[in-house]
Amino acid sequence: MSMKITDLSMSYGKAKIIQDINLEIAEGELVALLGPSGSGKTTLLRLIAGLETPDSGNIMIDGLDATKWSVGKRKVGFVFQHYALFKHMTIFDNIAFGLRVRPKKLRPPKEAIEQKVMELLQLVQLDELASRYPAQLSGGQRQRVALARALAVEPKILLLDEPFGALDAKVRQELRKWLRRLHEHLHVTSIFVTHDQEEALEVADKVVVMNHGRIEQIGSPIEVYNHPVNQFVFSFLGRVNLFRGRFQHADSASSVGYIRPHDVMLSHEPRNESDMKVIIKHITQVGPLVRLEAEDAEAKNAIEVEMSIQQFKELNFSVGETVFANLEHIKVFQNA
Amino acid sequence: MKGKVLLISISLLFIALFLLFPLLVVFSEALKQGIDVYIAAITEPDALAAIRLTLITSLFVIPINTLFGLMAAWAIAKFNFWGKSFLISLIDLPFAISPVISGLIFVLLFGSAGFLAPLLDDLHIKIVFAVPGIILATLFVTFPFVARELIPLMQSQGTAEEEAALSLGASGWKTFIKVTLPNIKWGLLYGVILCNARAMGEFGAVSVVSGHIRGLTNTLPLHVEILYNEYSFVAAFAVASLLTLLAIITLILKSLMELRFDRHRSENQIKEGESV
Amino acid sequence: MRNRFAKPSILPGFGLSLGYTLVYLSLIVLIPLALLFLKASNMGWQQFWETVTAPRILASYKISFLTSFLAAGINAVFGLMVAWVFTRYSFPGKRILDGLIDLPFALPTAVAGISLTALYASNGWIGKYLDAFGIKAAFTPFGITIALIFIGLPFVVRTVQPVIQDLEKETEEAAATLGASKVQTFLSVILPQILPAMLTGFSLAFARALGEYGSVVFISGNMPMKTEIAPLLIMTKLEQFDYDGAAAIAVVMLIVSFLILLLINFIQWRTGIRGSMR
Predict the structure, then answer these.
(1) How far away is chain C from the Cα of A105, in angstroms, using its nearest Cα?
(2) Residue C97 and residue C117: Cα distance in Å, rounded?
(3) Chains B vs C: touching, with 3+ CB pairs under 8 Å?
(4) Chain A residues whose beta carbon lies within 8 Å of the beta carbon of residue C171
(5) Buried b (16+ CB within 10 A) or exposed e, A239-264
(6) Does B81 touch chain C (CB under 8 A)?
(7) What pLDDT digit, counting tens, does each position of A35-73 carry?
(8) SS3 call for C222
(9) ipTM of the assembly?
(10) A266, A269, A277 from A272: Cα distances, Å
């Protein structure tokens, strides 16, 4: 299903939850709505589902104006953050629910329902737990049931609200890969909401970065990471070093420079005139990377640098050493 | 939307029929013959005696049951011991027993053919068909109220604050007064209000125990019955209206406190809070 | 001994508070109740059985039981409706009406009794209309049921309300996304969750109704074999100084109440197992 959202806005009392949202989603895309808490991403998702009503703007589904369509009419599959499984039904009954409540004419025969449910259970690798109750499952398992339940009604678009938010880190990683594979297998247009930029970058085809109810940038993961259009996107998508003040080649007196820790090149001898002279204060290894914290001589500017363990071993820095930081990859933004 | 309006209408109709109308009827009947007759009815000597007796009963019952409630809640909420749930069920007992039976058991104990009759005769004490009996019966039916409010409240508050106070050197008594009491003051007040409403309004239990001696052992509810049974309808409703006003005030106070002290109101709160 | 009975604690006053509580309960509750059973057992089994199965008494059980059951049932249905409406919707006057629901708790039963009688007597506000249809309310089991509906309503509403409040809205939304209509959602998702509370409320209303005296004696007319309720019979026996008889009937009523209490506890225990997932 393809979707086009035009000038969508919604307020709650005086607070503008989302403002002037314009977004296009192509058939089969896997899109991430990424942003901090309060950015409006969940509200946008719910508006798409039909669980909320916008104040203005429209939503087109496959070329038809769906703004006033009810939830049922939009044929969405919604996976809730806390799963919303029916506690008093078995896993099997939960997944079969959408098929069983169809009006008599559209309802598939009992055997067809059973077959479909078992297929889905196998798809999500829970076929042995069909007769269990939600309370007897782990968080990751419940999440997969919620997904299977949404898929059972063959939705045209799959909407996931922070699907992995409530799970352990390891389980999260596994499910991320699993979701990606599932999408490749099913090709259902999917939108998921997350505040975890790593998740968005790893899983999505397209990332929509949101803040304070507005869209900051839309692009592929590589695009939004390497070519952020403003300060917010830059700093939200990864770690940053911030520099204020005057810059060469800058038009305005007050600008801010952003550079990622892994774009800072450290060397024992200065390579350029503009290289920054710093003293290394702290070195730690964080997983596969080495992180160095350094300060300039007057202790006014601090800088964080990342490099691979390999690079660190080759360059062999130590605490207290004076080194030179090359900032040529810095991106300068004008401050409003 | 239509379904919503229908549901609201039916519910409101149901409430009007079963709750609102009975309320309005009391006042309508009481004032049927004008305000003078109304005032006469409630200032008549027997009525005044009934008012007095009702107040005296409450005056005794409330402090005694409040003390019980505090004691029981302290033991149950702050300590773990075997038999706790049984104790809690025991406290709920009066709610499960018909008021008539509540009165009956005291008649059996203190009545003229009762178990303690010979002893009482010797001491020239009359309990049944006298004020002490009324107080006892009322104690029985109202003792759960304060306890039931305090127990879940104190359970949910836990023991951390009291332990902190003790560790800082406060005595047990001081801890209770300065730490526990302020935390439970609204629950306590709430329980007292409910206890009072029931104490003043108790009919069945008191009816069995009182002997219906006009001017002496009639509480307000009993007086209402007597008037009604002798067809003095207006007078009966006039006296009843006093009790109704009391009920309304109780409800208002109840609402105000619920606003102040946001809690789930559930009959089975103790049972739910049972396993700490 | 103390260590096995109670967990040691630095909080003072355990002995005092527990002791006071137990003494109080013994004096006010346990001893008088024990006496009741003692008295009833004095009669000997034969006489006991004869007393409690006399026709008039059996008739009173039937009336008490049927009217209480019916009233509790009606309260279960309408109580659910009222609880739903008050939790989910807003409308003018809601706050006041919500307070009104507790009226049967606060109003003395005698007052309820005479006012309901006045309301449903042939010349009463509602009785008038019923009369026009040939329906008599006062002095019939119908009237008794009406009184029992009055006193039982808050039990259901106040038990069910918190459960409705705590319902996870998301499960209803999930059902909507899966295509269920409002009715389907109510029946298959919402109702199973509130059923235990409804059963509890029903049982409470039922137990209360069985023992109810004040609000019923006026509207019932107390006609033996027809509208005489069991509690009234106890009263009658007492007035005739038939203490044994009164005790016997009381014992039967207590046993029934006790069974209902057990039922309530059972329901709560059972639903605690398949309880909340969070």
Answers:
(1) 14
(2) 23
(3) yes
(4) 84-87
(5) ebbebeeebeeeeeeebbbbbbbbbb
(6) yes
(7) 999 899 999 999 999 888 899 999 999 889 989 888 888
(8) coil
(9) 0.83
(10) 12, 9, 11
